[in-house]
Specification:
Keywords: Hydrolase, Membrane. By secondary structure, the chain is an alpha/beta fold. Helix content is 39%, strand content 19%. It is globular and about 60 Å long.
């Protein structure tokens, strides 16, 4: 079976879309599928990283803001030239919708969409939204064709193998904070990492270890590295052992989106900053469930707010134990599947 992912990453978009597609791509490759990626080249793209993982990347020319008809034309060109027999196209892109999908679907067997916005119509055979939402079953009503198969909720979570491995060593937290993890996504376009780092200067001396993770797409990573050196923090850039750091941590500051669910899966209590509009609803619903603390919209969050939340975490042992329990209850029960249900749905056609 031949499968093409259409997904992008950049300084502005971030890396979350690519990372969840890579998780699925690795499972499909293990199931015997031939997997390809079509990605726009541009500042902050992860094309080289995807190739390093062993997947061919068909690079689309960066032409400024996405125009769906042009993007569809470029995608069809690479399909016709390099992938004449394509069983599935999997698209994970907020700038693409039914307009793009109708054009491209004529050149592929079937179409799958990965989404979490539920704000536009799609022409697809499968739609995956792995997030937890209150009243999730109604979100895509009228946005997909009648025969579309909906895969909704954390039971369809796309996790890289290292998270299942880390799960073996990650237990319910005891609420004591000895190690803190900072990770606001691979690109961190709102520079929450530096805001959070400055919070530690405002605090009394804490007897904690701090791990700070950034991606190569983070344009402020060299300043962050210098800050970590001065403060004696552990600096990590573009790593493949994030799950291990999450399993070791007692508390985390981070963004919403994919990494929020990864933290929940490992039972890691965290305070979440909403750094993009598409993260707002899922962060609010996860906080209402008790699985995270919601700090709020990034523009309203200052270093002093991060200092306050760190102080609160250190002083709130029972709250953190409760949060860890609720996070595991919400997402952490996701099983290690012999065949992941998303892979099964694709193989079944």
């Amino acid at each position: 079976m031949n499968i093409l992912f259409r997904v992008d990453s950049s300084f502005a978009i971030g890396t979350g879309h690519v990372m969840r597609c890579l998780a699925l791509a690795e499972m499909l490759k293990e199931a015997g599928c031939a997997v390809y990626f079509a990605m726009r080249a541009g500042p902050g793209d992860l094309g080289d990283e995807v190739e390093h993982k062993g997947f061919p990347v068909l690079r689309l020319v960066y032409e400024g803001p996405v125009v769906q008809k042009i993007d569809a034309k470029r995608t069809i060109e690479v399909i016709r030239q390099q992938l004449p027999s394509l069983d599935w196209c999997i698209v994970d892109h907020y700038e693409l919708d039914r307009c793009w999908e109708e054009n491209v679907k004529a050149y592929v067997g079937r179409m799958m969409v990965i989404d979490d916005l539920a704000n536009r119509s799609h022409e697809c055979d499968i739609l995956l939204d792995q997030n937890y939402y209150q009243h999730s079953q109604q979100r895509y009503h009228g946005l997909v064709p009648p025969g579309c198969r909906l895969l909704l909720g954390p039971q369809y979570m796309l996790l890289r193998p290292e998270f299942y491995e880390a799960k073996k060593f990650s237990n319910l937290r005891n609420g004591q904070v000895k190690r803190i993890l900072l990770f606001f996504g691979g690109s961190d376009p709102t520079n929450e990492t530096e805001k959070a780092l400055h919070a530690f200067k405002e605090l009394d001396v804490l007897d904690v270890e701090v791990d700070v993770v950034v991606g190569k797409a983070n344009s402020n990573r060299f300043r962050v590295e210098q800050f970590c050196r001065e403060m004696g923090f552990h600096y990590h850039c573009q790593i493949d052992y994030l799950a291990e750091l999450m399993a070791k941590a007692d508390f985390s500051l981070g963004a919403g989106g994919v990494s929020m669910w990864e933290r929940c899966f490992l039972g890691l209590p965290s305070a979440v900053t909403i750094v993009a509009e598409n993260q707002r609803r899922s962060t609010e619903d996860a906080a209402a469930y008790g699985a995270v603390w919601n700090i709020g919209w990034h523009a309203d969050v200052k270093s002093a707010d991060y200092a306050d939340i760190i102080d609160r975490a250190v002083a709130s042992r029972e709250e953190l134990k409760h949060m860890s329990r609720k996070a595991l209850e919400l997402v952490g029960s996701t099983k290690v599947y012999i065949v992941h249900p998303v892979v099964k749905a694709l193989l079944e056609g």
